[in-house]
Specification:
The protein is of the alpha+beta class and 319 residues long. It has helices at residues 2-18, 62-65, 123-126, 254-259, 272-301, 304-318; strands at residues 24-26, 48-52, 76-77, 80-81, 84-87, 97-107, 110-111, 132-138, 144-148, 151-152, 164-167, 191-195, 201-205, 227-228, 231-232, 241-249. The chain has two domains: 2-108 and 150-270, no CATH class; 280-318. It is 24% helix and 22% strand. The longest helix has 30 residues, at 272-301.
């Protein structure tokens, strides 16, 4: 019962701190690693990550944090600029994705849609006068759903544009290193080319994915994207957001991965060093009470009270 109570208090404490339930997620893949052998400060498979309840509008993207003119310039989390977010692909059920927020796509010019069209109507029925039907954006009339004519991307030179082209080359936007060799038609940095978003939201990317964004090849050429039951993930909307990655508790999530079923990758992506550190932590937990008892016993034996008690016992025995 004591162990159950301690676990309950720990979970409640984490919930109070993060504002989410469950307050922790276990990282299953290597998509966010920075070093092959693992690294405290970046996100490795087997790490536990606190899930912070952060307002959607407060998420800082890589584009904003790497823009010298932006108020968030220099903001870093987990080894790079920008926030790392946890989200459900297309709002569908399944294992959430934990990747970095790269850029936020926002409507610029909008037009009130044909509200007589049904909820499953196609783009031309909602927007007969042009524009992209965005069912999640707020229109000028205050209703949810609008026709987007142009887009803007904070932290870049894209403002009021019908399509989005950004070179994250350190000039048009902050430099994003793809960690790959440049060759024919492939740059060493991230490039978004002539993209027309289907709706507003946040484009995401794993730090170790060599610029293969979650939103697929229409956003960044050659990207495989991540998929859910409804297809390739779109830009992350507010209602898809689970939370923002907070503090890291390294290695301990490896235990869960060891016990996961066949639908989990198990410990395949866990750095080898994590097993050593995990063993050290478990050993410390097991043997710490033994060492603590020995130390306390030594302290008690050398205390004045114990010395006085021994003198009194010797005096009593002499009588």
């Amino acid at each position: 019962m004591l162990a159950v109570a301690m676990i309950a208090f720990l979970v409640l404490g984490l919930w109070a701190h993060t504002g989410t339930m469950p307050p922790l997620v276990v990282v299953e893949s290597s998509s966010m690693i920075h070093e092959t052998n693992g690294e405290i400060g970046s996100i490795d498979a087997g790490d536990l990550i606190l899930v912070m309840d952060t307002p959607y509008d407060n998420i800082v993207t890589f584009a904003e944090a790497s823009d010298r003119e932006n108020k968030y310039h220099g903001y870093e989390t987990h080894g790079m600029e920008g926030d790392v977010i946890i989200y459900q692909k297309n709002g569908d059920e399944g294992t959430p994705i934990i990747h970095r927020a790269i850029m936020r796509v926002e409507p610029s010019q909008i037009m009130t849609p044909n509200r007589a069209a049904s909820s499953d109507a196609n783009n031309s029925e909602h927007c007969p006068n042009g524009g992209t039907w965005d069912s999640g954006a707020v229109d000028k009339d205050g209703e949810v759903g609008t026709c987007v004519l142009t887009w803007s991307v904070p932290g870049t030179n894209v403002t009021d544009s019908e399509s989005i082209t950004i070179r994250f080359d350190g000039y048009s936007a902050g430099y994003y290193d793809c960690k790959r060799m440049a060759h024919a038609n492939v740059e060493p940095y991230l490039v978004v080319w002539n993209w027309q978003p289907k709706h507003s939201g946040i484009v995401t990317l794993g730090d170790n994915n060599q610029c293969s964004v979650d939103q697929g090849g229409l956003v960044v050429n050659g990207s495989s994207g991540v998929h859910s039951a409804s297809g390739v993930a779109g830009p992350v909307r507010e209602d898809w957001l689970v939370g923002v990655a907070g503090g890291e508790i390294p290695w301990l999530g490896t235990v869960k991965l060891m016990l996961s079923g066949p639908n989990s990758p198990g410990t395949h992506y866990v750095p080898s060093s994590s097993f050593l550190f995990l063993a050290m932590v478990i050993g410390g937990i097991i043997f710490a009470p033994v060492g603590l008892e020995a130390v306390l016993k030594k302290i008690m034996q050398d205390s004045p009270e114990m010395h006085q008690a021994k003198l009194e016992a010797d005096y009593s025995s002499e009588e």
